[in-house]
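ok so I'm stuck.
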Amino acid sequence: MPAKEPPIAPYSAEPSTTHTWLLVDGRKLEIEPGKPLLHRMCTTCRRNFVYDVAAKEWYAAYPRMFNFDRLVAVTPRWLSEACPGRHLPSDEEAWKG
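replied:
not stuck anymore, here's the structure
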């Protein structure tokens, strides 16, 4: 049976209108059964954001092969600021945790 795209209920539009998204509608996935997520990546700054449909919240994330690392320390800042317009060296530190 082919995999199907998880249903995504209405969600907060996006973490920021200043980013240039790789996929306009984001990537819908379900890592854990019954817990749909929406992943968005900015092609300009390379920041990744995930919308947790169940929790109804966006968070900054580092994509792994089979899941995402939640970047707790930078989430409030990344969600509140505009796209920096380029990849920042400080983001590398955020990805390391």
